[in-house]
Design a protein that fits this description.
alpha/beta
Length: 461
């Protein structure tokens, strides 16, 4: 019997890993919470929507079609088992992967490719209806073929803003402003850091925006959203403190990305994408934010390495030499992006007022966090959480953690979590019996709505 590998996550990294491992002779189970493979980057419209040109919503569509074709061939040959709509809530030592839908899946090794999620920093008015994450706006367009609004301000910082604005404009939205807190031109002052292909990609987005009359605003920060029943305008602060108020019905905002570390905190990976835990590989945004192209390279390396080592042979790095060169080049680019796209240092003090809600789930204002530090001596994120309840809600600090830490003036460290998802008590108490293909079945239990939601960039709450 061939060795069994579980790949958690069917975005670019996970699919690349699954395909490479199956090419190498492994039996692969590809587990993902979404109904279709592709992740956020290659999110597909629902089949019932009848999209005639889904490629118009995506960059590098041909790359995805080739990769998806290889995956489909492996699925048809029963070398890969794809389990969509499966939420993994625990990765147990010994490589048992627990899902809400199919119980426990056992394997000889695991590749974690759980991706990343969006970071949004609070400001007055950010809880108004009509304020969405930039990735959420993109997901609505890619997955539902709908616009979040008709007149949109795209703001924040990071390379995601331009493609989101370009996609919304092409779909018929009017981009009232594209406000970038950083200065992207600073990338040009880093010789060799930006691959030629990335320069061309950025120029392409700029040209598409120009055709729609959109001129990006550099070094402009969103400081407030205004409205009664929904957002009606956004205030932007530019260089020197000059402010402008832009009417709109939607604000799509993002302040970068964070790795999903709920299942496994990956401190580092080696040249083969192995983690310090033998038998556990990691690839893509779970190892650090770097984009889809980097995720594809890391996924291929992880899959090839796992295939060789689970067959009991020493991997031959020449088989992934091209992917390794791409990985090294794109990691340098990612480091340059991190250095350029930074949230202004004074953001927490200059933008977040005492009345600004920083934890939406528990409705904790910034004043409570500041009081916990000033009056009660809180000096770390856990103590602030215990004193204010910030981070105790549904998202468990995934969304508010960076903001609360910034307001408190303490470092943000993602907390270790025993479970990656809300789990019904019946599932924990039900036990189970082994089933075919290494699965463990449990007594079916009603699943609460909260167990079907993910703390990802699609849901800012």
């Amino acid at each position: 019997m061939s060795a069994r590998l579980i790949v958690v996550g069917a975005g670019p990294a996970g699919v690349a890993a699954a395909v490479a491992a199956a090419d190498g002779g492994l039996r692969v189970t590809l587990v993902d919470a979404a109904p279709e493979a592709g992740g956020q980057y290659y999110r597909q419209p629902a089949a019932g929507l009848g999209a005639r040109r889904p490629q118009a919503l995506h960059h590098a569509w041909r790359t995805w079609r080739r990769l998806r074709g290889r995956l489909d061939a492996h699925i048809a040959a029963e070398r890969v088992t794809h389990l969509p709509g499966h939420q993994v809530w625990l990765l147990e030592p010994g490589f048992t992967v627990h899902t809400l839908e199919s119980g426990a899946l056992r394997a000889d090794a695991v590749v974690v490719a759980t991706g990343g999620y969006e970071k949004v920093l609070p400001f007055p008015g950010w809880t108004l209806p009509g304020v969405v994450t930039a990735g959420g706006a993109q997901a609505m367009l890619k997955g539902g073929l709908v616009l979040p609004g008709r007149t949109v301000v795209v703001a924040g910082t990071g390379p995601l803003l331009m493609p989101v604005a370009a996609g919304l404009a092409a779909a018929g939205a009017r981009i009232a402003a594209l406000a970038e807190a950083a200065d992207p031109l600073a990338l040009l002052r880093r010789p060799g850091a930006v691959p030629p292909g990335k320069l061309a990609e950025g120029a392409g987005y700029a040209a598409r925006l120009a055709r729609h009359g959109v001129r990006p605003l550099r070094r402009h920060t969103v400081v407030a959203a205004h409205g009664t029943t929904r957002v009606e305008a956004v205030t932007l602060a530019g260089p020197g403190g000059a402010r402008r108020t832009v009417p709109c019905d939607t604000l799509a905002v993002s302040h970068g990305m964070l790795p999903h570390t709920d299942l496994a905190d990956v401190p580092h990976t080696d040249a083969e994408q192995r983690t310090p835990l033998p038998g556990l590989w990691a690839a893509g945004e779970a190892t650090g934010i770097g984009g889809a192209e980097l995720a594809l390279a890391e996924g291929e390396i992880a899959g090839r390495s796992a295939a060789a080592r689970l067959r009991g042979t020493e991997p031959d790095p020449t088989t992934w030499a091209r992917a390794a060169r791409a990985r090294d080049r794109l990691r340098r680019f990612a480091a340059a992006l991190d250095a350029v796209y930074r949230v202004p240092d004074a953001w927490a003090d200059s933008v977040v007022t005492d009345g600004t809600v920083v934890c939406r789930c528990e409705e904790v204002p910034a004043s409570a966090v500041r009081s916990a530090v000033r009056d009660l001596g809180a000096g770390d994120l856990r103590t602030v959480k215990l004193l204010t309840r910030a981070g105790m809600g549904h998202c468990q600090g995934r969304v508010c953690g960076p903001a609360v830490a910034a307001v408190a003036g303490c470092p943000f460290t993602p907390p270790a979590r025993p479970f990656a998802r809300p789990v019904p008590l019946g599932l924990l108490a039900g036990g189970g019996t082994p089933a075919p293909e290494g699965r463990t079945t449990t007594t079916a239990q009603p699943r609460p709505e909260s167990a079907t939601r993910e703390g990802t960039q699609d849901d800012p709450k």
